Automatic annotation (TrEMBL):
It comes from the Bacteria. Belongs to the UPF0102 family. This is UPF0102 protein JSE7799_00786. InterPro entries: Restrct_endonuc-II-like, tRNA_endonuc-like_dom_sf, UPF0102_YraN-like. One of its GO terms (molecular function) is nucleic acid binding. It comes from Jannaschia seosinensis.
Length: 117
């Protein structure tokens, strides 16, 4: 996939995810938030929880889930820690890490607490 096509495909997937979270009553705080160590696709608020959302798109939800690597998870944790430093509760703030899988039809499946030990 060329860079431009990949960018637009990823952006469209993020749009689907933002719509999904918004319809569920979550406030979207940031999109493509960039820290020193990388980027978090979407950040939302669910009650007291700040939710860090990794968006993965592929033909199927299973194929999208298979694209999550240990390296990406570490990067997301590092970026989330940096973002949390800006929150009133700092690193003690309540957070959740979700993965939003988007299939070829734009259907969204969310795995809440995807990186929970």
């Amino acid at each position: 996939m060329s860079g431009t096509v990949s960018y637009h495909s990823g952006f469209a997937a993020e749009e689907c995810v933002v719509r999904h979270y918004t319809l569920a009553g979550h406030a979207v705080l940031a999109r493509r938030w960039r820290g020193k160590g990388g980027e978090i696709d979407v950040i939302a608020q669910d009650g007291e929880n700040t939710v860090f959302i990794e968006v993965k798109k592929s033909d199927t939800h299973a194929a999208a889930a298979a694209r999550i690597s240990d390296r990406q998870i570490r990067r997301i944790f590092d970026c989330a820690s940096e973002y949390m430093e800006t929150l009133p509760g700092g690193l003690l703030s309540p957070v959740r890490f979700d993965v939003a899988l988007v299939d070829a039809t734009g259907r969204v499946e969310v795995i809440e607490n995807a990186f929970h030990a």
